[in-house]
Amino acid sequence: MVDTQDLLTVSDVAKRLKVTVQSVRLLIRDGKLRAERVGSQWLTSQVDLQDYIGSFNVVIEPDDHERLSSDVPPIAALSFFSGAMGLDIGMGNAGIKALLACEYDKACRMTIEKNNPDIALIGDIAKYSAEEMLKMAKIPPGRKVDVIFGGPPCQAFSTAGRRKAFDDERGNVFLRFLGIISDIKPTYVVIENVRGLLSTPFPYKGSAGPIKGGALMEILDRLRAMGYSVSFNLYNAAYFGAPQARERVVIIGKLGNEKVSYLQPTHNENGAGGLKPWRTLKDALDELPQGIEHHYIEFPEARLKYYRMLNEGQCWKNLPQDMQKEAMGKSYYLGGGKTGFLRRLSFSKPSPTLVTNPTMPATDLAHPVEDRPLSVEEYAHIQGFPPGWEVCGSLLDQYRQIGNAVPIKLGEAIGRAIIDDMDGIKHEYRGFKYSRYKDTDEVSWAKLMKKQIRKASTEAKLEDVL
Prior knowledge:
The protein is an alpha/beta fold.
């Protein structure tokens, strides 16, 4: 028997794991946590507790805490909705290091703590005042915050969801984020979000009801009322060196009357304009160490049957005609191209957008030649996470965190744009097409919105008359 000083009671274990005493008793009963009955109580050792944590990938949520070090770098930044820290890593690579991370998700918080234990960590954005956040980050009174960046929860604005915008609880978190920006007034603000933000309906001044793009208009109005000049565009991460065709809206605000230039591309689809060609899935996968152990969710056998008939780059449409309805089931009658169903990826192109689960039927991400989805190791490398970056939690937690992350190369491009602006470097916009879509920059988009607003205002007046 180990030293009694090394033993933990059920109550001790519950506190360590941040669960109830009853939950610990169930772990002991089910044989997941080794323990020994001594008198009237169960005792377990430190070693046995660590074995349980390691064997079952237990995520123990870290407590909120202030930053460990006290020195403040030349550029002081705060990160919100930090996730697995994809945007943080990219911004850091460009020279903008966050001193505080705000993240509510348990697994994400563990990932942050595991890889960046020095950073101040807070959870619920609504529980802290701006003053308290600065204190946690050890930014002294009078020291200007240079940058606040973050990607507020995108589900409220996603084209794939119901898009309630600010009527959604997560949309209200977005408003709280804007409130923190207003209180702290950093020199620069970065807001990253999904393409759906460009068209999310929301009531706007004088409109009879929600109008497309109303949510973004509300955000822009609030930023401009705070004194920010705003530029934004829809950017495909492949143009910045990511081996992934992921499109995201990036809004950059700067205090004063000058806008920050658009991001500077480093790659182009075919290497046009003196830029490097897009990086492909093959480029990314070939960089992984030989013999690496891959961890992944299994496809159901019922779908593997069809995957075995498909070659690289093919999908359900390449199955024999008489098998397509069988393979797709009711989804066969859905509208759209449905090219995400039973999809084997192509080595010769960038990966499609990494989703939070590579085995979801409508957004399959199957390996080009192996009968499995992309592994979490492949996910992490495609997103650009550095070797040794540990994503915590269950396999599904890891996929979700990596799938939600900002590609590191896109984060670097955002950081470089801000650093260039700090150095007085302006880049002329030459009409570069950053995505598949048109009218996604703030100037072109505003022209479309003016038409929408005029139409909505007219309808509102008609309603008043009628």
